[in-house]
Write a structure and sequence with these properties.
One of its GO terms (cellular component) is cytosol. The chain is α/β, with parallel strands linked by helices. It is built from six helices and seven strands, in the order ββαβααβαβαββα. A hairpin with a 2-residue loop joins β1 and β2.
Length: about 190
Amino acid sequence: MSIIGTKLKPFTTQAYKEGKFLTVSDTDVLGKWAVFFFYPADFTFVCPTELEDLADNHDTFAKMGVEVYSVSTDTHFSHKAWHDSSPAIGKIRFTMLGDPAGVVTNNFGVMREGQGLADRGTFVVDPEGTIQLMEVTSEGVGRNAMELLRKIKAAQYIAAHPGEVCPAKWEEGEETLAPSLDLVGKI
């Protein structure tokens, strides 16, 4: 079941960010664009490659006004230990949400039944708390930060330009479409 267009559900959880533990709730997310980047577990295989990719693009996300929240069902203590022991994860400057109770993971519908682990799910939430994008991939398929950035740029563009849409492979600065009866059958 799609959760596109629905509002962020309430949560409060512990997190690790830049050497500190903090509490993060749904209300902290409101007012800015946010990415919730779910992954199965700390100290695994594909997960650190994805998180390092996000970390390498952190400045671009920040310039776009996007806050990144990585989420697994590990604790914030595990996130700190991983951050301190892995060169790839040590690059991370975004917030790493611990979700051992599975509240956030279940809110987004990416909890693996009977396993207590999250699927690889990516969700983009707008400043009003509405989920605008979602992608869920299988265990072995890693995600790409550049693809995510392109999609966020498109979501931000259409939010700022009602009545326009971004066609396939749209890149910032390219032409958009204004859906109308005149376009039917001509694309």
